[in-house]
Amino acid sequence: MGLGTMNFLSPFAFAFAAAIPVVIVFYLLKRKRVVKLTSSTVLWRNFLAETQASRPFQKLRHNWLLVLQLLLLALAILALARPYFPGETRGSRLRVVILDASASMQSTDAKPSRFEKARAEALRWVDSLRDLDQMVVLLAGAHTVVKQSATSNKPALRRALELCAVTDSPTRLGEALRLAETLIKNQADAEIHLFSDGATPSLAEFENKNLPLVYHRVGERCRNLGLVAMEVRANPENAAQRAVFASVYNPMTNAQSAELELQFDGQTVEARSVTVPPTNTLPVLFLAAQSRDGLFTLRLNTPDDLAADNQVSIVSLLPQPVKVLLVTRGNRFLEKALRGAPQVELSVASSLAAPATGFDIVVLDDVTPAVWPAANLLAIHTQPTNWFGPLANVEVPPIVDWKSAHPLLRYVGFDNVQVREALAVKTPAWGMALVETPRTPLIIAGEVDHRRVIWLGFDTLQSTWPLRISYPIFMANAMEWLNPANVNAALLAVKTAEPFRLVMAEPPAAAQVIRPDGQVASLILPPKTTEIVYGDTTRQGIYTLKAGTNRVVFCVNLMDAAESANAPRPEIALGKYATAAANTRQRANLEIWRWIAAAALLVLMFEWWYYHRRTV
Amino acid sequence: MADQLLNPDLLRRLEQFQLLARRRSKSTAKGERRSRARGQSVEFADYRPYVAGDDLRYLDWNLFGRLERLFLKLYEEERELPVRIFLDASESMAFGEPRKFDFARQVAAAIGYVALCGFDRVSVIPFPEHPEEAAWRGGLRAVRGRKSAREFFARLSQLAAGGPAIFNEALRRGALEARQTGPAVVLSDFLDPAGYEPGLNALVGRGFQISAVQILAPEELTPTTYGDLRLVDAETGDLREVTFGRYRLKAYQQTVANYCQRLREFCRARGISFFSVNSETPLEQLLLKQLRQAEVWA
User: Fold this and answer.
1) Chain A with chain B: Cβ pairs closer than 8 A
2) Which residue range(s) make up the domain with A300?
3) ipTM over 0.85
4) The pTM is what?
């Protein structure tokens, strides 16, 4: 059996070897003697004989050098004994360290920042590991990254921690905890150490898991104002203007004032002083003329702890007329509603034989096209599709629920809408049921094959809906939601850590992304792909994508109220009843021999200094 | 020349002193000292019966009148006192500020002057012997009479310190050479590596009345050079490596005190008058106080 490669658990202890040349230098210094002519050395000979050891033992006299050397020896022996403060567990242990890398960890209430402080504390935990203890390092941003798998190699752990970087993304501790839970499964003595400020969405799924979670809280206070929403729309009252909606969130318990500045392509459009009530969100509306496609940026000038949420940018494209093809056997309600929608150029046909390439939106009203159009689609009571499984009919389905938060159902209600008959389907994976009855969804919206589709499961003429005010509003919402320009504009604003996607007409030869910090990332594209996906959006700011001749600017924003509320939580709630309280006590076998050895080194230095000082 | 060694005021005061001899002079030369010899003086000593050939002038006729026997009156013979001064002129005496040798020469001059004023014979024996000085060193031997003082001082001033002291050898030879014993003064730092005991013992054994004056330099009592030192003996070339600092000064001074104390005890045990002085010590203090208190002179 061959011997394995020798490893060192504390290789940095070799740094003490740096003291060796120092000692040698001291010895070199000592050897230099001054030659002096003297009348007689008789007295000196006697002096040396009396002061040096003429007998094997002499009376022990008080000598600071002796005291220092004894102290040095004691420290060295103590260090060799490798003392530690006793812990509560024995044997090999597993520690899973989760480092929260969300935006709120950038808060500077803990110097230099919460993240740096958390990292420093985690590094101290590495120092406290015993030889056989293992540690895993997880970095929890929007996605959890395993920075270091289980190992007892302290330099590797330290390196992994040092390579961790904070992001602008919201906290997703659930994913990290799920991974940690898997890692500690079947481990007798394992602990999860979470270094975080506790700003996290619900972790109810861990309520009954009895996780050995130790929460190390970082952060001291809440002092922040944040932009949590921004949207640019056409001003309904003045088509030449754009309305910029924004929300400023104040998580503090006292009202805060700040200056809010709107810029268009770097030029200040308007600056306004706002006062946000305590623990409240203040909606702000700016009206600005826009003559070209450009970039609206909102900046909050306030000296708070968290700078990541003080700026939001959105790409705003000028509204373009949308070409809509209505394929119907005749529906005056629908036609009128569509014509009433803004920016719509409506064409009407009774059947569809060609792919309808010239149109942005195709509305199929109870017809089945011979050729399915490639454009975005509003399909009303269109039966033979491959979007669903087998279809059935349901009579007079009562509407029980609708998702009024969805942009399609903005200002749309179904309180007094009755439907005579509807197709019964199961909600497909690609879509979302917006209006539901007990047996079937009535309206489904989603994305199929890179195009948006709204599917209505009933004939509107067989319902009371066209007579209601919600009908034209829904159609206007639908035209806006299906408008490819709006779709693209929506794609140009992504939240941090969410991927940016862009569908090109032709597969690009090469693509590059210029990040907010100026770094250029070249994308490796699969051959013949027309969709570019860029996922490294953990830092907010303005990104530029260059693909072939195309140049697309997109914005990555945090806009997360949970992150803006950067108060460090005293405990992390795991569901309703379970919590993990912030831990201030370190349960670890802290080896201190290095400190003792360092002290011994200092004593040695002091001894030499003292010795030389006395001889001069 | 005399001014360089001793100032006139001190000379004047020294003229009043006379060396005290504990024993009667054994010299054969006439002088002013009482001796065991019978001779011609005014001091009556004894009677002895007349034998044929005696000088009839010394018969005591009054006694003859009473006893009808002839007795001769004997008088004490007054003879000179031979004073020997052993002067250490080795290299080690050239050290110190003021130089130990200068101090020693002054003491030798003072003792010599006192002896000359008392019509005693003074011999200065510098050691080691320098061949180049041999020609005129004779001028320091057997000097008599006050009128010789000027030349005596001049010769002393010409002496130079150098070479290794062979202390014991010099004293032993001095003891053997002396035909008559008398007061002997040893002026040295007593720092010969071979020790001082055989030399002093030789003098004591010959019957000298010895005064030992140890002269040390201030630098030897309180060294002012600190650090890691390599000390070179000026006489022998002996090397000593010493790490010395203020913290060891007391220990060093204790060593010096021990050394002097051993010398003092050695001297006391042999009836030697011992004086230990610093070359900075005012000359008057040694001459007018210490030597007087020790009854070297009065």
Assistant:
1) 100
2) 226-318
3) no
4) 0.51
